[in-house]
Structure formats: C-alpha cells, structure tokens
Amino acid sequence: MTNTPVLTGGRVSPRRRLAGRLKLPVTVGISIVFTALAVICVIAPFVAPHDPAFIDPAKSFQGPSLDHLLGTDQLGRDIASRIIAGARTAVLAPLAIAAGAVLISTVLAVLAGYAGGRVDAVIGRVNDVLYSIPSLTVAIVIVGVVGGGFALSIAVLTVFGLPSNIRLLRAAVLERVNLPYIEAAKMSGVSTPRILLTQLVPAISPLIVTSFFLQVTFAIVELSSLSSLSFLGLGVAPGSPDWGLMLAENRSALSSNVWAAAGPGLSLVALAVSANLIGDWLYTKYEKAGRSR
Fold first, then answer.
1. Alpha-carbon torsion (37, 41, 42, 44), positive or negative
2. How far apart (Å, rounded) are the C-alpha atoms in residues 72 and 60?
3. Phi first, then psi: what are they for 78, rounded to 5°?
4. Cα Rg, the chain, nearest whole Å
5. H or E stretch at 11
6. Cβ atoms 78, 72 nearer than 8 A
7. How far is CA 282 from CA 159, 170, 202, 208, in A?
8. For the segment 196-221, what is each residue's pLDDT rounded down to a tens digit?
9. How far apart are CA 226 and CA 98, in angstroms?
10. What angle do CA 231, 234, 239 make, to 5 degrees?
11. Under the phi-then-psi rule, with left for phi > 0, alpha for psi from -120 to 50, and beta for the rest, what region is 238?
12. Considering the entire predicted model, what is its pTM?
C-alpha cells in the first residue's frame, strides 16, 4: 500500500505541512545536536568527570581509559573535562562577538544605504580603513598600550567583524530602498524610523541571520588563533581550559597523546561547521518563506 498525501479540499493537510516544516537535512540535524551539547556544557559544567584545573604530573600524557576518556595532557589534567569546561569561552565569546558585530553593522548599513550622501561616504571611508588594517596587529599594539585581557580580544574582533557585514547589508538595503513599497511609505508620510524598522530591516532579515552565523564561525576561528598568543596578553589567561589554547599547548605532543590536541581541535572544527550549516539552513528557510508570501 503506497503512502499518499492527506489532502483537505485539494490542499495538503496541516499535519503534512507541519511535517514538511520540521524535516531537517541530516547534516543540519547533527549540527543542532552538537551545538546543543556544547550549550549544555556551558550551562552545566559540573558534568565534567574531573576538575579541569587539577594537576597530576604522575599521569601526564596518558592515553584514553575508563578514568580519563580522552587521556591527559602534559600536566596530567583530564582532557575531556577541560574540553567540557572550555565550551564556555568557545560558545559565549563567539556569540558575543557575532551579536555585537551584526547589531552595529546592521545599524550602520541601514543608515548608509537609506540616507546616502555624506552619511554613506563617511561610513564607507571608515569601513575601508578597517578593511585595510590587520586585526591581529591592532590587538598587539593595544595590548602594548593598555594591557591585555580576554575582553580586549572580544572588543577587537567585534570591531574588525564590521566591514564585511556592513558591505553585505548595505548592498541589500540599496536594492530595496527605491522599491515601490518604500516609496509609497515615504509618500504616505510614514516616519523614517518606522520605515527602517518595519520595512527595510525585516526585508534584509535573512541576510542578517546569515551574517550572524557566519560571524560566529569567523569568531571561533579567530579566537582560537588569539588564544595561541596568550603569552602576549591576547585571548584567555595561560592555563585556562580553552579549546584554542589547549590545541596550541598540545600540538607538539601528538605522539604522546593525540587526543590532547585532536580533542579540542575537532571540537573547534565541529562547532564552526555546525554554526555555518545552521546559518545556511536558516537562510534557505527564510528565503523560501519570503517567496511564498
């Protein structure tokens, strides 16, 4: 017996329609599961089987066992516990960077695209300057002037995450700012803030969502690079359970315990890929919803 769609008045039934909306690609489903596990590690770090900061030199570079699922590092610290504890910076910091960068870039892009003229020119020149300066060089200079810290890394990456987002979102605004429904709103006397908030921003919301998840991906990679320079005052403090720092500390000892570096390294890759796949899927869903309206 073949399965046929349940129709109601010539249309697909609500049950079928709901099932279609909930259907996920396998890769996106796996990404959501991994991201959920990372979030659980953030809000419930006590699930770690050992104290991630406990040092036992007698157990340095032990392989995986029932007591230490991924083995230990050069100081005898449990790798699995440190990966769980490191999820906090791996998840929260990129989210903070992405949220700040996308919020600021959306405001600037909408202003530049809608106002045009001098406003667009000024924002464009500042954007070009940010594009031309390496973020790592600026971070090192700031460290030498005001001192280091993890908050500094977040601030620098937030600022240097603006240029690409501003260009992308500004282009989207310019495509829509002269469309008939925007012109009609202007002719009807609708205030500028209301046009921006109720017309332009919702129109570019698929790109905003995509930019957010792409920014999360870039922030994960950039933060892991900065963590390897913790001796300069960038990233987290030395010895902290951070995936990027763990990878930098243990990559020279792959022959002793490959999981000491592979564990945090694979976690970084999985989180970055998951954010990218989820963002791409959400963009596709937004686009389809927009075309169906």
1. positive
2. 6
3. -70, 120
4. 24
5. strand 11-12
6. yes
7. 25, 21, 15, 11
8. 888 888 888 888 988 999 899 988 88
9. 16
10. 55
11. beta
12. 0.82
